[in-house]
Model the fold of this input.
Amino acid sequence: MNVGESTVLEKVCRRTAGARHITLIDPAKQSAEVAAERAMVAAECGSSMIFVGGSTDTPDDVVHATCTAIQEALELRMFAASQDPTGEESMWDIPVVLFPGGAHALSPAADAITFMMLMNSTKRAFLVGEQVRGAPYLDRFGVEALPTGYVVCAPGGRVGEVGGAELIQSTDVDLVHAYALCAKMFGFSLLYLEAGSGADAPVHPDLIAKAASVEGLTLLVGGGMRTADDVARAVKAGAQWIVTGTVTEDASSLDELRTRLEALVGACTP
Ligand code: 1GP
Done:
């Protein structure tokens, strides 16, 4: 699948040039109402997509409530903008995409899902097991699957532990290159290099650059990015989509969140 064949990816790529920013919202970390408020700030600041997920044990009703609250808030903002001659409707026209920890964390209210293989996992469940469990539900929901190779790099955090990942170290450039080639050969659209949520160091730029040298994949990078400099380094190395979550979760107010996200989104287009 290329970008032109996916309505969700096509929408994101039409919206902005250069690298894009994605705001990750973990439904386990706040109420659905607060999640929707945070997502609206993210959209206002220029995030191109909202990922919903992250934790490994969130029940699907919590995920569904969060997706629904975000979609309703986006629709309301879009309607309000359509009634206002100075309103920017397109600002609110962003996809809500599941970023699941497993087959339990699905919702028909999402526009799409990063349908992931944790490629460097040692556990069958994360290679194909959860995917087999989830596929019939996604088929029934009509949620678009975005085939994603997910590769966990050091330090890896909780996803590295729970996922049983053989972590990619910062010097493993040939290995990350092999994973990127493998993702392309499987026909994945996206390749996601993950350092782990809240990581004390983001994915090393050498790994990003080597993965980016494989054409035909959209390269996502996330984990441990907190500052505009972190984002700029990753973008310079070749990251096309930047995912941040913790900076949103630990902002003390919506104003602080706005300041943070404006800086991170700004750094995506140097
Ligand atoms: C986690 O890559 C994402 O899956 C985001 O990480 O929470 O560190 O921003 P942070």
Notes: The pocket of SN-glycerol-1-phosphate is lined by residues 24, 54, 194, 197-199, 222-225, 243-246 (CB under 6 Å). The beta strands are 20-25, 49-53, 96-99, 112-118, 144-152, 190-194, 218-222, 241-244.
